[in-house]
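Sorry, I am new here, but would you mind making up a protein's amino acid sequence and the tokens describing how it folds?
***
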Amino acid sequence: MTAPEERPLLRVVKGTPDDHQLAALTAVIAGLAAAAPVEDKPGQRSEWANPARRVRRPLQPGPGAWRASGFPN
């Protein structure tokens, strides 16, 4: 089997750069590609880390109050 032809990563369209210029261009493009930000998805925040949990309603005495005191607002 023959390997399919691969397209070159860079192609000089105009001018005649020397080896040093091509190496510099390749290094810059590789650096930019490596530094490209990946789409940051906001992480799922735990409900335990929610700052709103620090503020709670006053406890209400009555039937079932102990059960309601453990539920989030």
Q: What stands out?
A: Helices lie at 19-35, 65-68. The longest helix spans residues 19-35.
